Amino acid sequence: MMNDATQYTSEHDPRQLVSEFLSEFHSSGVYLRENISRLAELAASETIEVAELATGAFFTSLIERLADSFDAAAVTLYNRVFAQVIQHCRATERGRAIDHALTSFNLESETDLIARAESLRHRQAPDSLRNSKSSVRRIIVLSRVTLGADVAITSVIIERMKREFPNAEVVLVGGRKATELFGGDSRLSFKEIGYRRAGTTIERLLSWLDLLDVVRELTDGLERGEFLIVDPDTRLTQLGLLPLARDESDYLFFPSREFGNLASDSLGWLTSC
Fold first, then answer.
1. How many beta carbons lie within 10 A of that of residue 4, not counting itself?
2. What pLDDT was estimated at residue 263?
3. CA distances from 138 to 69, 153, 154, 181, 184 (A)
4. Which of 182, 188, 192 is nearest to 168 (CA)?
5. DSSP three-state, residue 47
6. Neighbours of 29 (CB within 10 A)
7. pLDDT band at residue 261, thresholds of 50, 70 and 90?
8. Which of 83, 97, 227, 269 could form a cystine bridge with 265, CB 3.0-4.6 A?
């Protein structure tokens, strides 16, 4: 049972806040909510040095650690922590556009964000997609941002999409390096988008708004069932926490952090499965 602890422990630096949070959670299962609240405040600070330091601790010491655990319990905790931070950021002046966009998807609360993310974890492709492959005109595949993950995961997804949907245009959305990596593929189109990997937490969340604009451009004029968005657990959506499709029958999510986590197969093979 994961319980909230409402009493804040200290005013330590961001790394100490993360350390206390993880130590308490792993030892007792208590979720130190106030530590995450304080961390979110620091990460959203108007003082750039403070925001950068807190963002570094948040992503390097907490978020990436949970994401790299390849453990179902870590995915649950990741969703809970990041949803709390998103909720704080959207309430700030700089986060108003994020709040407006999330509200347009009917995601108004932290609970809404968590519930949607949890619903993606074990969802299968709908039968309607299997039965109407010929109607899909465009497939939008999101880059995993890092080259290693694009080689191991995104490349496998692209090849499967090309095979399963031989008449559909496949568009890869990612950075310039992803374009260079896959540039020799004649079946593939590209849409370049930047992700602020060195930016503050809010700057990284604002990248999602840029992605939304790209997806809307690529789906403009297409009807439901004529396009498909494939999310390989990318940082562009913060590992599925941020939505892209109003009707998620047009959205496929690969839970790379926990799919086959008890198996010894390679990530590429698991992606293919």
1. 9
2. 56
3. 33, 20, 17, 21, 19
4. 188
5. coil
6. 10
7. low
8. 269
